[in-house]
Amino acid sequence: MSHPIQAAKFLEDKSNAKWHDETLWFVRDKRDTSSKGIPEWENLRELASSIKDNVLSNLDSYLVEFEKNAIKNGIKIHWAKDAEEHNQIVLSILKEKDCKAIVKSKSILTEECHLNPYLEENGVEVVDTDLGERIVQFLNQPPSHIVLPAIHLKKEHISEIFHEKLQTEKGNNDPYYLTQAARKHLREKFLAAKVAITGVNFGVAETGEFVVCTNEGNADMGVHLADTHIACMGIEKLIPKREHLGVFLRLLARSATGQSITNYNSHFRSPSEGKEIHIILLDNGRTKQLGREKFRNSLKCIRCGACMNTCPIYRRSGGYSYDSVVPGPIGSILSPGIDLKKHSSLPFASTLCGSCSDVCPVKINIHEQLYEWRQEITKAQSSINAKSIAMKIANGIFSTPYAYKLSGQIMRGSLKILPESVTYSNLNTWGKERDLPELPKQSFKDWYKNNGNE
Ligand code: SF4
Predict the structure, then answer these.
(1) What is the pLDDT averaged over residues 385-399?
(2) Is 307 in contact with 330 (CB distance < 8 Å)?
(3) Ligand 1 pocket residue status of 199, Cβ below 6 Å
(4) Are 332 and 370 in contact (CB under 8 A)?
(5) Which of 155, 171, 172, 370 has a 20 to 30 Å separation from 43 between CA atoms?
(6) CA of 357 to the centre of ligand 1 (A)
(7) Phi and psi (nearest 5°) for 400?
(8) Mutual orientation of helices 328-338 and 366-380 as an angle, nearest 10°?
(9) Which Gene3D superfamilies match (predicted)?
(10) How far apart are alpha carbons 373 and 333 in whole angstroms?
């Protein structure tokens, strides 16, 4: 997997790339306006970060507390060490309920576990009920953004998909018309499903309850119509007390979409009579990440997507160029921890401008961790590659004054006479989109010799 190669593919369609960049910047702009609307914004970020620090330092005891209280509330708790175990647990519950079709609200965790293909292979129909997720599901694609799953598609494209899948009027791109068609289609699925699956935004250790945030109300619709609710939760999603929700819910909505509050913040505490709630607590590498001192902060992430919307690389390369469930800056920290070889190019997909760290509501030092990963990856890469050879040559030139002077003279002389086919060959990736700067007639040192006394 190479991010630059995937990004180059995305950039082939220049007008789409420009539109993607501008659309995400619009969301980032909304986030700025909304966050500036509350004077205590920076205090909230500080507080959220400290609460999460506390959670990560005491995760074992908070998990036990959460489990104990959830069981007291009548919820069934399951523990999964990895994605395979997680999926097996889901399937075993579905088998027990003789369920062949489920509805699922947005859950990055189930994407991480590749739950959809697993269930489908086992004869279960999975319907993603978040509108964006349903659109990409029609295309057999994963989400390209954790909050805005179909942000890479324009309304014209969605109209074509709906015409094919939902028999809507050909060429009708009206968002209201398309949304109504999706609504009608999903309603039938909601009514038929016996089991609903959701993710979890926050689990409250003190009470054993959990909160699911959606803008479309699809999680609630699925859960209230089904007899069984399966909530899939990463072990890092805990907060100690219910009162802490006031901090996180304010930060999450503003950071994600610039809203003051998410439309539906649904609290689930205990099952209604005759119904069941199951929570699957998943590790899948999180404990390992907790043990990596330089990267453990990444577990504070509340999946708001703000670091993606602000990132100049994400905006200009699209979510799929990361080939990772969580793309963008935070994904570039998490993914190498799961598969270093596959995702070794991701920490380099950053300008290290620090904008991601500046917008992160839980103050994760994202760009510093990306820089740390670069060092780890460079150390781990035993093979000699073009970059390491170039760096060795540069090191030799920069550390020897005579070689530095001579190479300057050669470059100034040769670049004037070499044809463009050589100066802009494939070796000059920098020059692909830019002109080389005009060369000075002499080096600064030579200029200073002649003019230094003036
Ligand atoms: S790292 Fe921070 S900004 Fe990025 S998704 Fe997570 S919480 Fe949001």
Answers:
(1) 85
(2) yes
(3) no
(4) yes
(5) 370
(6) 8
(7) -125, 110
(8) 40
(9) Alpha-helical ferredoxin, NagB/RpiA/CoA transferase-like
(10) 7
pLDDT tens column, 324-373: 999 999 999 999 998 888 999 999 999 999 999 999 999 999 999 999 99
Please report how many Cα atoms fall inside a 13 Å half-sphere around the Cα of residue 141, on the Cβ side.
17
Note the pLDDT tens digit of each residue in 245-276: 999 999 999 999 999 999 999 999 999 999 99
The Cα 240–Cα 252 span in angstroms is 17
Owner of token pair 């699209």: 318
Does 333 sit in the ligand 1 pocket, CB within 6 Å? Answer: no
Length of the chain: 454
Contact 115, 90 (CB under 8 A): yes
Ligand 1 atom 7 nearest Cα: 301
Ligand 1 contacts CB of residue 302 (under 6 A): yes
- Give SS3 for 282: strand
- Strand ordering across the sheet containing 202-204: 238-239, 202-204, 209-214, 264-268
Q: How far is the CA of 302 from the centre of ligand 1 (A)?
A: 6
Residue from 380, 363, 233, 379 nearest 300 by CA: 363
Closest CA to 312 of 353, 343, 360: 353
Domains and their CATH numbers in the chain: 1-37+308-382 (no CATH), 40-284 (3.40.50.10420), 400-451 (no CATH)
- Confidence band (pLDDT; 50, 70, 90) for 157? very high
3 state SS of 231? strand
In the block, residue with structure tokens 């670091």: 307
